[in-house]
Amino acid sequence: MDTYSRYPLELVRGQGVWVWDSDGNKYLDAVAGIAVCTLGHSDPVLRQALVEQLDKLQHVSNLYRIPEQEQLAAALRDRSCADRFFFCNSGAEANEAAIKLARKHGHRVRGIAEPLILTAEASFHGRTLAAVTATGQPRYHAGFEPMVQGFRYFRYNDIASFESLLAACEAEGPRVAAVLIEPLQGEGGVNPGDPAFFQRLRQLCDALNILLIFDEVQIGVGRSGRWWGYETLGVEPDAFTMAKGLGGGVPIGALGVKARFDHFQPGDHASTFGGNPLSCRAGLTVIAEIERRELLAQVQARGAELRALLAALTERHPTLLESSRGWGLLQGLVLREATITAPDLVKAAIAQGLLLVPAGPRVVRFVPPLVIESTHLHDMVERLERALQSLAKLTASAAFG
After folding, report:
1. Which of 8, 128, 191, 213 shows a CA-CA span of 20 to 30 A to 98?
2. Which residues, 6+ apart, have CB-to-CB distance to 211 below 8 Å?
3. Which H or E run contains 55?
4. Which pLDDT does position 301 carry in this prediction?
5. In the Cβ-directed half-sphere of 29, how many Cα atoms lie within 13 Å?
């Protein structure tokens, strides 16, 4: 079905941070399947682990205990603030589980008949109907009305906006079950969370027994240079979601929750494929390799280097570029108004052998594999600069007719 505006590339092979198309052209990949291929393409350790798992068992269903799933839950527990985990197949499904948990919290703990969930403007939480309703971007709602009831929106990083919305919702008694928020907004423009905002958010949720849920689907599993985005903010959520980088390319998502907020009982929620042996083996391998290769420290170093390179690029092209922002290896380059668009720059970069992804009309996103090296970053920015120069020439030619 025609649900994607695809670029004219047919990618057929990958190795590390490189991919090749069907014509043999080679591209430096700063997309990584949109923050998915943590260890790069065709990683030999991940490949071997999956082959060995396929030799044993790939799927059985959650009617039975799954050792790999229990091992992955333990590994995540030991590296996060969560005690228990529900496994599924994607970020949207993880957020759906979080929404159901939030509603049950509202009913059981706050005694709310019709609970509300507060989310941020410019957020992105997935494409299923409840997750897209939670997404605070009207363009994703258009054509799918009526949206799911029970969501209200506040301005990201704006505590006055949040407090005003919370007061209005709670004016006649308890109404708010949960807050669902990204530590760093990815799809909405690479907007990092403000620690002061999140600390106040934590205080307000604690005071009213409101569940605080973080969407870590894009920034989690090491992309920030720490295991989780909430570590950068210095605030622990009551629950958080993950997906993308956890499987290194094998579909897997999860909802992690502190034990006292685990309101689910058998029959409340389920997933046929969620947490099967193959996907959990991928997750276990990714976690082990992040630690074995000391990738968290490398992401911090490469992230700082990428920020410096993008800042220098912005200084060289002040009429086209405005700024850059982000954490670790999730960085956004902000384009100036009325010059070029993010899709324009992404297309021009393809011609230079570089793959990037937009984050809205004015931000180009960099989410390369966590194994990327310094030489690759310099190569990436050189290709990006050539793409900018080609667009600048086209813009100048158009201006002069």
Report:
1. 191
2. 101, 102, 105, 177, 178, 179, 205, 238, 239, 261
3. none
4. 98
5. 27
Q: Which residues contact 245 (CB under 8 A, 6 or more apart)?
A: 35, 36, 37, 38, 220, 221, 222, 223, 286, 370
Residue partners of 62: CB distance under 8 A and separation at least 6? 270, 271, 272, 274, 275
Question: What's the pLDDT at 392?
Answer: 85
Please give the CATH topology (third level) of the domain spanning 11-36+294-399: Aspartate Aminotransferase, domain 1 (3.90.1150)
Q: For tokens 């919290």, what's the residue? A: 105
Compute how many other C-beta atoms are within 10 angstroms of the C-beta atom of residue 81: 18
Q: Where are the domains of the chain?
A: 11-36+294-399, 45-292
How much is the average pLDDT of 112-128?
A: 98
β-bridge mates for residue 192, sequence order: 184
Q: What is the pLDDT of residues 321-374, one digit of tens each?
A: 999 999 999 999 999 987 799 999 999 999 999 999 999 999 999 999 999 999
Find, among 194, 227, 198, the residue nearest to 212 by Cα.
198
Task: Quickly count: other Cβ atoms within 10 Å of residue 152's Cβ.
Answer: 15
Residues 6+ apart with CB under 8 A from 300: 225, 328
The amino acid at residue 82 is A
The whole-angstrom separation of Cα 28 and Cα 307 is: 18
CA angle, 315 then 321 then 325, to 5°:
90
- pLDDT of 338 reads 74
296 CB-near residues (< 8 Å, 6+ apart)? 222, 225, 226, 227, 290
CA distance 367 to 38: 10
CATH no., domain 45-292: 3.40.640.10
> Is residue 381 within 8 Å of 305, Cβ to Cβ?
no
Distance CA 56, CA 58 (A): 7
Burial class (CB in 10 A: 0-12, 13-18, 19+), 134: buried
